[in-house]
Design brief:
By secondary structure, this protein is α/β, with parallel strands linked by helices. About 25% of the residues lie in helices and about 30% in strands.
């Protein structure tokens, strides 16, 4: 994936990683970052559902996030965002990413396998070299509150099977699945 990039734009939708910014800027890429998961937990985007629980106002969220020009991004690092994102945001976020990607643009996504379990740690991915990524566990924001005497973590919301992944990216032209390590599947997606 990295070999195809030459002075292009890369969107990283995970937690900010200075290593990733340096890696891509040293290659001459324009780098954009949006921590979509953390942004989705902002109280300004929360509304009450019919059942009284808090849900994300998708329209308001997308009005403030991922607001890039149409077909302006050459590569996207989606990481494992869909596994942790609230259900109501998964398809709209993937659709918005599709809109901002150029035709032929690449996306790298990771998906947990069924063996990961609901307590699979949420990670920040740091690109060390073209073939090495380091992982750093990060906690969820707690707004100064602790739950059960310890800080809460982002929890795995779902595990996608291959058919679900294919459906999630149905507007894209191509998907390639790779078996990764640590209960992760890697998916290379082409717009």
């Amino acid at each position: 994936m990295l070999a195809r990039l030459d002075r292009q734009s890369v969107l990283d939708v995970g937690p900010t990683s200075p290593a990733n910014i340096s890696f891509f800027t040293n290659m001459g890429q324009r780098t954009y970052g949006e921590d979509v998961l953390r942004a989705s937990r902002d109280v300004q985007f929360q509304v009450a559902s019919a059942e009284g629980s808090g849900v994300v106002d998708v329209d308001k969220f997308l009005a403030d996030n991922l607001t890039f020009e149409k077909e302006s991004i050459d590569a996207v690092l989606l990481w494992d965002l869909p596994d942790y994102l609230d259900e109501g945001l998964v398809k709209p976020v993937v659709s918005r990413i599709h809109q901002v990607m150029k035709p032929g643009a690449l996306m790298l996504a990771f998906f947990h396998t069924k063996d990961a379990g609901p307590d699979a740690p949420y990670q920040r991915y740091h690109i060390v070299s073209p073939d090495t990524i380091e992982l750093q566990r990060i906690p969820a924001p707690t707004n100064g509150r602790e739950q059960g005497g310890r800080h809460a973590h982002f929890r795995l919301q779902r595990v996608f099977n291959n058919r679900h992944i294919e459906n999630l990216f149905h507007d894209f032209s191509s998907l390639k699945f790779f078996l990764g390590r640590d209960n992760i599947r890697e998916v290379l997606v082409i717009r």
